[in-house]
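Course exercise 7: structure representation. Students receive a sequence record and must write out the corresponding structure in token form. The form below is the worked example handed out in class, using Cytochrome c (182 residues). Read each field label carefully; the graders check that inputs and outputs are placed in the correct fields and that the protein name is recorded exactly as given.

STUDENT ID: A-19
EXERCISE PROTEIN: Cytochrome c
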Amino acid sequence: MFRRALLALALAGLAVGARYQLGTPITEELAAQYDLRPVVLPDGRGLPPGEGKVAEGERIYAEKCASCHGARGEGYPFNRLVSEPFPITPDTEPVEYAIGNYWQYPTTLFDYIRRAMPFGQEGTLTDEEVYHLVAFLLYMNGITEADTPINQKTLPTIRMPARELLDLDPETKRRFPWLTLP
Ligand code: HEC
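STUDENT ANSWER:
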């Protein structure tokens, strides 16, 4: 009954759309602009093949990121990427929050850079370039060694320093006792 009512509503909507010439069918090109690619989860699901190296990342960073985030990730004119100090405290200035003292999962770095950077030219980096950049930024934050390979297997196993700071709030714990953070 409910489904029938929904169907009737949908058909009525179509009829109205046709009558008033509302909207246009979406084209494949337009849909492609909103293609967000698979989400990368903390356990590594969604990560593509490829491998990142610090030296390569340094080169790409200088070319595509340094103008906005500073030569060493110190954050000028935009967000700081290389962090000091750790751990953050209530007195830490928000501009000091960065990858090494605030990001809880290394996989998010991959997902975010691939999806959102370089600002204004999002979506132009290849998966391989993103891996190189992640390798460079983790190294610059003192989280990995210069020769740590960054790939589908290794990235999810890297423990971020800020992970210790993350906990479920008491209310969430009470309501969902079975819930644990990845
Ligand atoms: C044109 C300027 C510009 C360029 C170039 C640029 N970014 Fe950004 N970046 C930004 C801005 C602005 C933000 C903040 C976006 C927001 O908060 O929505 C940001 C945020 C970030 C963040 C999140 C910082 C945080 O902790 O919140 C990361 C990581 C990042 N950029 C990495 C990169 C990398 C890697 C590159 C090079 C491929 C790059 N960006 C190139 C402007 C830029």
